[in-house]
Amino acid sequence: MQIVELRADNFARLKAIEIRPDGSVVPITGRNSQGKTSVLRAIWAVIEGKTAAPAVAIHGEAEQASLYVDLGDYRITRTIKRDPEGREEWSLKVIARDGTRITKTPQALIDSFKGDMGFDPLGWCRLPSKDQAEALRSLVKGFDFDIAATTRSDAFAERTTANRKAKEAQAAADKVQLPEGPEPKAVNLRDMVDELADAHNHNAQVERETASRARTQKQIDDNLDQAERLRAQAATLEQAAEKMQWSLDTMAPIPKPIDTAALQERMGQAQQVEAVRGLFGRRRQFEAEAKTANEDSARLTGIIEDLDAAQHEAIAKAKLPVKGLALGENAVLLNGLPLAQAGTAEKIEVALAIAMAKNPELKVILIDEGSELDSDAMEFVASLAKKNGFQVWIAKIDETRQVGFVIEDGRVAT
User: Fold this and answer.
1) Considering the entire predicted model, what is its pTM?
2) Helix, strand, or coil (residue 113)
3) Distance CA 237, CA 230 (A)
């Protein structure tokens, strides 16, 4: 499909235009600020709708604006009116070739064939390499670059964290200075602690028993002394002393104290062993953390590499519109070199080919600011358009009033 007729009334800078194009190239010419760009915007707005129009679509103080395009198979009309509060309201009417009005989702019908008329080939040539590649990616089917970029960015950030953790854990492990020799076997320090406590209790009991017997012996001695001084009471005291002596003599012998020095020495040695084993344990813990982090890093590297491989495979399988055209890392390549190094004709050919690929059904391309195209470039564009069955609308400055459709003060000059 191509444009058979375009009409626009009171839209943007346009007051009233009617254009019936003839040929593959449709030059829209004139001086600056006369409405040339508004002609292109009118085409895009009648196809796309309000989103393709300027913020204020109705010209000047007019009450309404209208856009009409005849595509042969369909005639599309959009009417824009101001409501009482000054807001612009859009309406759409689509008539098929046989005169039938499309009443069920007419915009969906337009969307099915409209392509991307908003893609300006010359504007694309002026973009930075990264933005050029972004526009070209839409031709690569079966691969979602946005999801891949987000997944890759998340994996890269997660891998960076894993690498940092691995580095920190390994550094901590390296700081644990181990003594020479192998890691000692575990010792049962708790049993030694219990044994030492039992020994201390035993010795305390021995001390209490010794003190008690010493007090008894002292009492015996005191009684004997008193017997010496008090002869009158000697018999009684002697008998008491004999009884006490018998009781003392018949008591069980006092056990010998336990020597705790050796046990305390063993406990000290056990504590040293536990300290050394703690060093080995800390070293193993840090090394395990480093191993886990390194494994995470390797897994995330695999995710990134798989994403890159899938992207490269999708790009390799894509049928790009120009032989030798390829997508590099944030750049468009032509025959293996950045497109920026290509000649003007090659750039125009690539840009037009991309625009044609983006508009396979509605074969209309809009080029704004086409004044940089000289006569040779214009002929080249015309030949490419004719060869591929496209209609190229080009807005450019021309004050001769002899080229294409001349726009003056929002109208087609006569």
Assistant:
1) 0.61
2) coil
3) 9
